[in-house]
Amino acid sequence: MTTLTLAKALNEGMRRAMEDDPKVLVMGEDVGKLGGVFRVTDGLQKDFGEQRVIDTPLAESGIIGTAIGLALRGYRPVCEIQFDGFVFPAADQIITQLAKMPLRSLGKLRLPVVVRIPCGGGIGAVEHHSESPEAYFIHTAGLRVVACSNPADGYTMLQQAIRSDDPVVFFEPKRRYWEKAEVDTSSAPADWTPFDQAKVVRPGTDATLLAYGPMVKTCLEAATAAEEDGRSLEVIDLRSLNPLDVDRVVESVGGTGRCIVVHEAPIYNGFGAEIAARVTERCFYKLEAPVLRVGGPSTPYPPSRLEDHYLPDLDRVLEAVDRVFAF
Amino acid sequence: MTAEAPRGAEAPAELVQLLTPEGERVEHPDYDIDLTHEEIRGLYRDLVLVRRVDLEAVALQRQGELGLWASLLGQEAAQIGSGRALTDADMAFPTYREHGVAWCRGVDPVNLLGMFRGVNHGGWDPAEHNFHLYTIVIGSQTLHAVGYAMGVQRDGAEAATIVYFGDGATSQGDVNESFIWASVFNAPIVFFCQNNQWAISEPLEKQSRIPLYRRASGFGFPGIRVDGNDVLACLAVTRKALADARSGQGPMLIEAFTYRMGAHTTSDDPTRYRVASELEAWKLKDPIERVRAYMFKNQIADQDFFDAVDAEADELGKDVRKRCLALPDPEPLAIFDHVYAEPHRLMDEERAEFAAYLEGFEG
């Protein structure tokens, strides 16, 4: 076991993937000498060279478009999009090409491309640096979408994403980059939880909190606080957003009868809506209350002096817990 | 506003031509080509056959057998000339109109028709032919091609990549980004722009105020304009550009100056936006007629040869039609196939639900 920050765990995951497979490339803006604006690719260019760790021109569509071409030639590019709000120039390549080319080819072409996106708010940033655009990509068939919440998962899930023959959009909660935890870097991939499975990160009996990425920690804190009120909350880290590990969710909610989905993204048409619909369909007779959603207001992300009001926090989650028990 | 050319657009465009519209062989200081009679007959045959396939496809669309067809009429020389310049190891990335290049790469024309008939979105194996699938979003494939070329570069392979796009595509961000990537990474790629003068209804002046080949200099690599209706010039210029790319000299932009003699697609009506006299003028520069005239004048082929090619073309047309009509519709559950490479529980779940729904109609 080693204690690593999330940023370092992701770095170690990429390093190991590059050591294991010479076809793995890292590409993006400032990923070389600088090591990325969050230092997630720190030292990789020094150790693997400029042919494998590529500082690209400053154009996101170009990053994904050329990554597709490299994948067609047998490479496995790991692309860094510098900030969530900068992914949109690449949206066309991701949605019309990356997601659809395998189907277009009747399975003859595979695009093992990973698109890493630091996501979410809470770092006092200017506009376009704090967004949660996952719903756009979850809605796009052909993509796998995952979100890590902690260093151990960051280390394993990124390697699993790189090994996958499907394109993967990989969300990293940027405000958790500097948080540390134990990571077992000696573990074998065969022992890792498959990256399309959810994990119960805190068992409980009275209500289920569903979260991913930055909100997992918030929900764990809420569960600790609720315990003082005598409420036992189960927290599930969804990890995979497409596909959703719906059986794991249904199993939990079937037991607790209450379900709250928490994400930073705006509630309206957010991922919580899909989960609520599925849980309602599968657990209708076991639900004690409607599925509740906690998320950002259905507005653009506000200036950072307001972000503490925008982002779901411990109190907002606990308030929802009160509501779900009030039915 | 004045009637004069805008600033930066004053100099006249130069054009590489080796065969005039009248079928006269002309010399060019930088480009020459020495072909055997058999090779010239081969090019002529290619030109005639792809035009015949195209004609059959338009007819099939008119008869309701294809949902759409994008005709290559008028662009045969640009496509056969550049397509025949490729070696087996070279890779080509087409738009959706490169039926002539597909022919050169050995793709069965019925596979092209299948896509426009709606049985799939692309039915050939790109690796088998080194010919990528058609790309419909304008210009997207230029980035794929440059990325592929960067992969070739990393493999240390001696191969070039060629990417096709049109005049309208030069306005796309992706095309401009692909120029930048190719330039800064010195990628072994040839950008082959078929300037057919029209992006559906928009004439070239809506896309550019300078000749397109001159765009290249701003990105740091050479650009050249070739007579796109001259199969010899297209072959010579592309061959040289590919050789340069293979030997590490980096990218090049070729603007094949040609004309879309038909509609943009079978859904289009060019009489709404262009005058008939323009088409008539371009008919005099037809890419096939000039080769025929050249061959006649120089005894490269006799009437028996031309008759045989015409007969072969008719047979090909019939064969393509027959096999197109015989293409089976895919099974309904094929909707769920190949969306993901690895097992995906949502696909499995929805496939099972849909199968159960369909079974409800049986018996």
Q: What key phrases describe this protein's structure?
A:
heterodimer, A: 327 residues, alpha/beta, Rossmann fold, 5-stranded mixed sheet, globular, B: 363 residues, 2 domains, 5-stranded parallel sheet, two-stranded antiparallel ribbon, 13 helices, oxidoreductase (chain B), DH_E1 (chain B), oxidoreductase activity, acting on the aldehyde or oxo group of donors, disulfide as acceptor (chain B), thiamine pyrophosphate (chain B), pyruvate (chain B)
Short description:
Chain A is of the alpha/beta class. Chain A has helices at residues 6-20, 44-48, 60-72, 91-98, 101-104, 134-138, 151-163, 215-228, 246-256, 271-283, 307-310, 314-326; strands at 2-5, 24-28, 53-55, 76-80, 114-119, 144-147, 168-173, 180-183, 199-202, 207-211, 233-237, 240-242, 259-266, 292-296.
Walk me through what this model shows.
The complex is a heterodimer of chains A (327) and B (363). Chain A has twelve helices and 14 strands. Chain A has 327 residues and is α/β, with parallel strands linked by helices. Chain A folds into two domains: 2-191, Thiamin diphosphate (ThDP)-binding fold, Pyr/PP domains (Rossmann fold, 3-Layer(aba) Sandwich), CATH 3.40.50; 199-326, Rossmann fold (3-Layer(aba) Sandwich), CATH 3.40.50.920. In chain A, helix 8 (215-228) links the parallel strand 10 and strand 11. The relative contact order of chain A is 0.12. Chain B is built from 13 helices and seven strands. In chain B, helix 1 (37-62) crosses helix 2, helix 2 (76-83) runs parallel beside helix 9 (231-246) and helix 4 (109-117) crosses helix 12. Chain B is globular, with a radius of gyration of 22 Å. The interface between A and B is large, with 47 and 42 residues. Chain B: Keywords: Oxidoreductase, Pyruvate, Thiamine pyrophosphate. Chain B: Pfam families: E1_dh.
